[in-house]
Amino acid sequence: MKFRFLIENKTYKDKTTAEHGLSIYIEAQGKKILFDAGATNLFAVNAANMGVDLSAVDFAVVSHGHYDHTGGFPMFHDINPNAPVYIHRNALRVVYGTEGGPLGGGGVLEKEPCSIAWSDSELKALADQLLFTDGPVEITENIKITGTIPFAEGFKETDYFYYYEGGELIQDDMSHEQCLVIREPEGLYIFSGCSHRGVISALNAGKSMFPGEKVAAFIAGMHLYAATKEDRQRVVDEITAEEIGTVIPIHCTGMDALCELKLMLGDKCKIMSTGDEYLI
């Protein structure tokens, strides 16, 4: 198992540049996998500087339909026009975030959408590569995609998204977020882009792909930067209780949660950035 961060929010490497987004290149089970493609074409620039050949990728997975995870896929098409791209069927909604909470509760709709920003021509070019998911998908015996992540008990929203349907604003249920799960001899590797349906929801969904298996690593954007201290601590405590081999909080986790996870988990919590590699 090896994975490298082509895009993460931060970096200390001389030959890579960070942006708000996520892209991970994974080599496992004899497959080369791209999980998300950042906000721009920068993931491809970093890949070239890191010696990663994107033309050799076997398939890609879109964690969910937001711009900071999908902006680079038109470039990926130019580099590798044949690799399947697994994306949830609801991921193409034009979605707007809010500032200050939900609509009707003090929140204000943002002016620009935070959804996938592909042009019509880019979407047309990508069309033959897109494989739409809904429920769980088995890529191989040891590689699966969760499809829609069921809500875990006690889930609490920390952000709110809306889309127009029939002239009305509908709250996005984030049904288009999905995890990639890879089974290795040492356990499961669960990759979650932002965990918008809840960190524990994502973890549970990943575990359900291979019931009874231990979790070797949980690599996740945890979207806890807007959570209350109480809710954040609850998630940190639940992750700690899971006795996961390695926890790698990334992207949208937030500095407070990142520090709290490191304090609780010590060496079991790895802080990784653009250009970093995990190898076992």
Brief characterization of the structure:
This protein is an alpha/beta fold and 280 residues long. It has a single domain (2-279), classed as Metallo-beta-lactamase, Chain A, CATH 3.60.15.
List the helices and strands and how they pair.
Elements (H helix, E strand, L loop, with lengths): L1 E6 L15 E6 L2 E5 L6 H8 L9 E3 L5 H4 L2 H7 L5 E4 L6 E5 L8 E2 L10 H7 L3 E4 L3 E4 L2 E3 L15 E5 L2 E4 L8 E5 L2 E6 L6 H10 L6 E7 L7 H13 L4 E5 L4 H11 L11 E3 L1
Parallel strand pairs: 3-4, 4-5, 5-8, 14-15, 15-16
Antiparallel strand pairs: 1-2, 1-17, 2-3, 6-7, 6-11, 9-10, 10-13, 11-12, 13-14
Describe this structure in words.
The protein has helices at 42-49, 67-70, 73-79, 120-126, 199-208, 229-241, 255-265; strands spanning 2-7, 23-28, 31-35, 59-61, 85-88, 95-99, 108-109, 130-133, 137-140, 143-145, 161-165, 168-171, 180-184, 187-192, 215-221, 246-250, 277-279. It is of the alpha/beta class. The chain has a single domain (2-279), classed as Metallo-beta-lactamase, Chain A (4-Layer Sandwich), CATH 3.60.15.10. The strands form three sheets. Strands 8-5-4-3-2-1-17 form a seven-stranded mixed β-sheet. A six-stranded mixed β-sheet has the order 9-10-13-14-15-16, with helices on one face. Helix 6 runs parallel beside helix 7.
